[in-house]
Write a structure and sequence with these properties.
This protein has 12 helices and 12 strands. By secondary structure, the chain is α/β, with parallel strands linked by helices. Strands 6-7-5-4-10-11-12 form a 7-stranded parallel sheet, with helices on both faces. Helix 4 (75-86) packs across helix 8 (191-202), helix 9 (256-265) runs parallel beside helix 10 and helix 10 crosses helix 11. The radius of gyration is 20 Å and the shape is globular.
Length: 350
């Protein structure tokens, strides 16, 4: 009750949005959705009579629409939230802590900005993800004939809203001998640990929540931990990860901007930079700098994005070498990092 009232107050305080109804459980919500026809739903994962995941699955099957999940900041809550994104939720916000104090204004800004962004969401893409989740999962690629990565290659990926599933789509289609991959996905602490563990059981590459001082190795993926910037540095042992607790950049920590700029600082021109779906513009300026420095840069195309905010911001700056549909990005990564000239085929990835 307290959370519903708090969200209602925050939303109604905005001049461009209004709460048209609230519901104590999904059964009541189902009837209200039919009569009130809302543009967006906020959905608590933990509810009586029917859990939020079951309700979301039914909703995306019968009436696809933007859904923002309200989740607890726990390990269990993180796992369920990741599942909700997998079956079509637009995004999530954590349940507000008691006595937010000065943090209440920022929390309200996070909630309302995500509601606004959800109105521009690509519902077809959310619906596609929901449908895929109900079908047989794609098996991770183990090995690809005629693919042998060049030494010194690096892949760097930035993402936000819709990114957890977009990253999965890319990683599933990359073999175990791929160059090292560093990833910044806007995600809270604890959620990043759960997400990395989930990717590690799903993909052929070894996926870590990045820790300080890890050597970048082929076949390994390093995901920025929630609440800390991920950068790379040179050491006597080669390239290693480093974590920073400095101020948020573009309102985010971890920030894509910080990660991309560390690539230039290390002089790594043999890097392929990728910007996937996400709201806002974090990393756009840095991707432009990557391109100017000589790195190859790819942005996800608008049709396959949940939100074309971050890739669209790169597009406006002309910071990209190419615009590519999500499911074609793995093929391009393999072609760009392959030391062999033969065409790489990843048809086995689905």
């Amino acid at each position: 009750m307290v959370i519903r009232q708090l969200l209602k107050q925050m939303i109604n305080a905005e001049s461009d949005m209004e709460v048209v109804g609230t519901a104590a459980d999904p059964i009541i919500a189902r009837d209200k959705i039919k009569h009130l026809n809302p543009d967006v739903i906020t959905l608590d994962i933990e509810m009586p009579r029917m859990d939020g995941i079951t309700f979301l699955r039914n909703l995306m099957r019968l009436r696809p629409m933007p859904v923002i999940m309200i989740s607890t900041l726990t390990e269990a809550g993180a796992a369920i939230t990741m599942e909700s994104l997998n079956i079509g939720a637009f995004d999530f916000v954590p349940k507000p802590k008691e006595n937010l104090g000065k943090g209440l204004e920022k929390y309200a800004e996070d909630v309302t900005s995500k509601i606004r962004a959800s109105l521009k969401a690509n519902i077809r893409e959310l619906e596609r993800r929901s449908q895929i989740n109900g079908e047989e999962s794609i098996k991770a690629v183990q090995k690809i004939a005629d693919y042998a990565p060049r030494a010194g290659q690096l892949i760097a990926i930035g993402a936000s809203t819709g990114g957890t599933e977009a990253i999965k789509e890319v990683l599933l289609r990359l073999p175990a001998n791929c160059p090292p991959i560093i990833i910044t996905q806007h995600i809270p602490e604890k959620f990043s640990r759960s997400y990395a563990a989930r990717m590690n059981t799903t993909c052929s590459m070894i996926v870590h929540e990045a820790d300080a001082g890890q050597k970048l190795m082929p076949g390994h993926v390093y995901i920025a931990p929630g609440g800390r910037h991920l950068v790379i540095k040179k050491s006597g042992n080669g390239l290693v990860t480093a974590l920073q607790d400095s101020d948020p950049v573009n309102r985010h920590r971890p920030s894509v901007e910080v990660m991309f700029d560390s690539i230039i600082a290390c002089g790594l021109k043999n890097t392929v930079g990728v910007m996937l779906t996400g709201m806002g513009a974090d990393g756009a300026d840095a991707m432009f700098r990557l391109k100017e420095y000589g790195c190859h840069t790819i942005i996800q195309d608008e049709d396959s994005c949940v939100v074309w905010g971050m890739p669209g911001s790169v597009f406006k700056l002309n910071g990209h070498n190419e615009i590519t549909p999500l499911l074609k990005i793995p093929e391009r990564l393999l072609a760009l990092t392959n030391r062999r000239t033969d065409k790489v085929s990843i048809k086995s990835a689905g």
